[in-house]
Structure formats: C-alpha cells, structure tokens
Design brief:
It is a single chain. The chain is an alpha/beta fold. It has a single domain, classed as Rossmann fold. It is 31% helix and 23% strand. The protein has nine helices and nine strands. A nine-stranded mixed β-sheet has the order 1-2-3-5-4-6-7-8-9, with helices on both faces. Helix 5 packs across helix 6 and helix 6 packs across helix 7.
Length: 300
Amino acid sequence: MTDRFTHESLRQFLAPVDEPGPLRPAVEDEVTCDGYVRRQVSYDVPAGRASAFVCIPDALPAPAPLVFCHHQHAGQFDLGKSEVCGLRGDPDQAYAAELAQCGFVTIAPDAIGFEDRNWDGGRNVTWFELSNRLVVGRTLLATCLQEISLALDYATAMPEVDSDRIGFIGHSYGGRAALWAPAWDRRIRASVSNCGCVPYRESFARDVGFQAEFVVPGFASAHDVEDVVGLADQCQYLILATDDDRWSRGAESIRDRLAERGTRHARVEIRPGRHDFPRAARTTAYDFLADRLRETARGS
C-alpha cells in the first residue's frame, strides 16, 4: 500500500526551483514553411536563456490550440528542437512541424543539455546538471518542468494561441516528460506519451537504468508513474507503447494499475514495434489531441 500522493507531496519530492524573472522574449528568426511560419525565439529562464521554435499555421481563422512538442534523447545532445521541427535527424520525429500543418500552434524548446542548451560541444552534460542540483537539495526534473511552464507562459501570450486548449506530445525522453508535465502544470489538457512510459520499478534493470532528468530522491520508495498520472485529472492521457522496446517496458502493468485505481483519464495502447514513432502512431496521436482539445473548447 503506497502513501497518499498529492500535488503537495509531488512538489516536496521535486524540491524548490528558482523564482523566474521577466521572460524578456525575442524573435531571433522567422522562416516561411509549407503551411506554417517557423519562428526561432528566446526568453529568460532561471537556468539561462531558453531557445525554442514556434510553428504558427497559415491563415488561422481564430486562436488555435497549442501543443508543446518535447524532443527525444537518443544520446544526441546536438539535437533538440530542430529534430521535432523536421530540420535534422529522424523524419519520424518531426511532429512539431506536422502538427502545425494540422492547424495547431506548436512550441518546441531545447531541453537543458540539448542543442542550443548544450555548453560542452554536444557531450552529455545532464549528469553534471543533475549533480549540481542534488548536492543542494534540488532536482533537475523540477527545473525541466518549470521550463515547460515558462514555455507555455511565452506561447499563451501570443494572439494566435487559445490558452484554454493546451496539449503536449513527446517520444522517448519527451514521452516521459509527457507523463509528468500535466501533473506540474494543470493548464495541459491532453498529453501523448510515445515509447517513454517505463516505470521506476522496471528501471532498475541494467538494460534500462535511470535518465538523469528523472532521478528524484526517495520517489520510487513508495510511488511510481501511475501516481503522477493520477494527479493530473484535468488532463486526458494517451500512453502509446510497443511490445519490443525497453522504454515501453511495464506498459501492461501501468494499464492494469490505472484500471485498478479507477483512473478514467488515461488510456494505454500497446502496438507491435520497437522504439519508434511511425506515421500510423503519429496519426493516432494527432487525432487524439484534436478530439480532446476540441472537447476542451466545448467546455467538457
């Protein structure tokens, strides 16, 4: 039997974050693309200067839903926002661009340690970023989640965005973030996690392990990802997993435990495949976001 898990206990596990100051946003560049405009923007965050792409569909009839698009990890620290916008990397990861073509405004920042946020020539700096926080009683995850909220602050101030309709999507590292972000920021109404749901109880295996961003002291002694998902009852989750992917390991147990708890705001789907995000799965994800964010607009 686990201890009762609340928003207060979540914040206690994640530890404090620095109070943010003014964003001081700037548009660094703007490019016309196929069906949308891609802006490169920057703004202040407590850990430095954020760098993000914002994709705005052409000829919006009214403020559009916003989707935060979190990039993957893959040990490629020179890649972040550029991959989800289709500029480099795996074309199957270009969901920020594809969603913009579907009529969503998307925002895709670099996470700490990736692309413009990497300060050591593309080497892995995330364990340094983690350890520097742990020794003073903080966590890297709290900083990452705070930066997600600050990206939403930036984007929801745009006239093109309907701030009542906010979604989230991510693969792998982004899929893990998609489980946590709605529990941290209750503005998120729909979230898609692809190939990133491996729970803590499965991560002790040597072929899985713990990603630096999700090392939270004491958390796994009594809790797991079902507790995090359960907190975000304002959000509808679609958790996509595959049957041959270590980062999807434990998806069946997540599905069963959520059902046992009577959690109705999360759906787990397991498909044949490996650690990938093929077009069919992306189409399922985009349809889910469109349906759920339309429901939000109707007040559901």
